Amino acid sequence: MTASETRPLTATRSFPPDFLWGAATAAYQIEGAAREDGRTPSIWDTFSHTPGKVFAGHTGDVAVDHYHRFREDVALMAELGLNAYRFSVSWSRVQPTGRGPAVQKGLDFYRALVDELLAAGIEPALTLYHWDLPQELEDAGGWPERATAERFAEYAAIVAGAVGDRVKRWTTLNEPWCSAFLGYGSGVHAPGRTDPVAALRAAHHLNLGHGLAVQALRAALPADRQIAVSLNLHEVRPLTASAADREAARRIDAVGNRIWLGPMLEGAYPEDLLADTAHLTDWSFVRPGDTAAAHQPLDLLAVNYYTPTLVSQVAEGAEKPQDDGHGNSAFSPWPGADSVAFHRAPGEPTAMGWAVDPSALYDLLTRLAAAYPDLPLVISENGAAYEDVVGEDGTVHDPERAAYVHAHLEAVHRAMADGADVRGYFLWSLLDNFEWAYGYAKRFGAVHVDYGTLERTPKSSARWYARVARSGELHAPDGV
């Protein structure tokens, strides 16, 4: 039993008046318009068009057509009481080759989106990179190459110059763990490579690219702008209290969490990570000054959380469960942790098979608050996929999703009461959309999308979340 389960809630469960109530999306998952106005392919365009990579051959060519329907979508956000919206910019849309001058039509789309949000009283929260590397940069080596980090900083400056006068909240990278280890390690994400050394090189250059981008943003933006990075930090739990299982948890914490927290927040890679991976690489791709460059002052640490990670140590030759929740592959996304087994955590599963356990979010937030007491936090993604059904009356009742979000907001409230400085919550996701390798088979949206007509219908959980967002009070989702 955790502290979050023993400590009673306050009677009101009120959130601060300036708390951000938002929803989040990603460019490739919603925009569509894949070949319009100068946009060129990203690695996800290439990956989704490669047979066998994405469920049923689905692609993001049209997605939910947000590129043409963004005004309708902003009106939905206003209807749902959101005061913030987290979106990502498509690098291929504004700088198609990943080098050189911007395409103004691409930047004009984001200018118009930001203006529409501000006119609706919704604060834009911009993410520079949500996994969609321009294909030409991948052809030149991708994130395993140092030049990609340097190009990323140039791209950051371009976007800052276009909308920096109106956007206050900036995030460099979304979930670099997925970019590095699912993209270059297990191959279940674009670009689909399966090389553990390339994955570690990619991780370093993502760290470096983050730091260089922060420097570029600081140089281009007004001084009051807030800069963050969004990490899917794993709340790692050992299967048992044995020393072997605790060692397994340490290994996953090293390559899942501290590989980012070390350089970005402390200025060094953890020594145990270097030792765990010494049989793969000597890390000579880390040049003098790199970790100092990655270690830039941040205004917020953004946290994505869905489910805990449960691990054990297995003896050599024994059967090794591999239910890590990150897709099926013969190749591991966990370099240096070949002896670690992954288990499905206890709790009711979502449609993704991920256990619902809000206590792990409480534990993660309070652990981060203790480790980095001067760094405010924001929940940049949290949500669940369920098998949503459209009723005969055209409505979508999703009480499971409302219960999931309610339980996790309770965990956030408890963590705040116990000292965690959490500034906001972004529901994943605003809209049903292209869910990466799962295509359109998994629905995370607060708003249902009919993929044939692209009609948007807020689900019952969205109506409940709107009441919470407008009032700042965590009401129980009765009758949803």
Automatic annotation (TrEMBL):
<dbReference type="Pfam" id="PF00232">
    <property type="entry name" value="Glyco_hydro_1"/>
</dbReference>
<dbReference type="InterPro" id="IPR017853">
    <property type="entry name" value="GH"/>
</dbReference>
<keyword id="KW-0326">Glycosidase</keyword>
<feature type="active site" description="Nucleophile">
    <location>
        <position position="381"/>
    </location>
</feature>
<keyword id="KW-0378">Hydrolase</keyword>
<dbReference type="InterPro" id="IPR033132">
    <property type="entry name" value="GH_1_N_CS"/>
</dbReference>
<dbReference type="InterPro" id="IPR018120">
    <property type="entry name" value="Glyco_hydro_1_AS"/>
</dbReference>
<dbReference type="InterPro" id="IPR001360">
    <property type="entry name" value="Glyco_hydro_1"/>
</dbReference>
<comment type="similarity">
    <text>Belongs to the glycosyl hydrolase 1 family.</text>
</comment>
<keyword id="KW-0624">Polysaccharide degradation</keyword>
<dbReference type="InterPro" id="IPR017736">
    <property type="entry name" value="Glyco_hydro_1_beta-glucosidase"/>
</dbReference>
<keyword id="KW-0119">Carbohydrate metabolism</keyword>
<keyword id="KW-0136">Cellulose degradation</keyword>
<protein>
    <recommendedName>
        <fullName>Beta-glucosidase</fullName>
        <ecNumber>3.2.1.21</ecNumber>
    </recommendedName>
</protein>
